[in-house]
Design brief:
With 143 residues, the protein is mainly α. The protein is built from seven helices and no strands.
Length: 143
């Protein structure tokens, strides 16, 4: 995972939808994370890291499907413990905001993948789409 400065993280936070900002910074969210961590015997330092990684998911920099693997590796947890913690976090934190998180992790698709026909794809100014194969471009395919 890439490293981010505090300034970059704050910029990401302020670009989140307001409802997600509230969830990410709420005392209830932090208390829930610490409760789950304490239930599984995490130290204060480990709980801090767990909270940090939950925040990374909420900021859109740690995909939810990489959460369990990340806490297992960085908190040096067993497979079972990391899965149980991740399930608890998913149930209590992520599932209630699932729709908001899906907006952060929506797949990027090309116009064709999104179902647009070639004629419907917006063109740049002065751009023409040609069906003819150019001799200069060996990669261009005929349509």
């Amino acid at each position: 995972m890439a490293k981010y400065t505090k300034q970059q993280l704050w910029e990401m936070y302020y670009n989140l939808p307001e409802e997600l900002q509230k969830e990410a910074s709420s005392e209830e969210t932090t208390n829930s994370i610490y409760k789950i961590g304490n239930t599984h015997g995490l130290s204060n330092e480990e709980n801090y890291l767990l909270t940090k990684y939950v925040g990374y998911v909420m900021l859109g920099v740690l995909p939810p499907d990489k959460f369990a693997e990340t806490i297992k590796r960085d908190l040096k947890l067993t497979e079972i413990n990391s899965e149980e913690i991740a399930q608890g976090i998913n149930r209590v934190i992520f599932i209630p905001i699932k729709n908001l998180l899906q907006g952060l992790y929506a797949p990027i698709t090309s116009p064709i993948e999104s179902g647009l026909k070639k004629e419907e794809i917006p063109k740049k100014d002065n751009e023409e789409i040609s069906n003819e194969k150019s001799e200069d471009d060996p990669y261009k395919e005929e349509f």
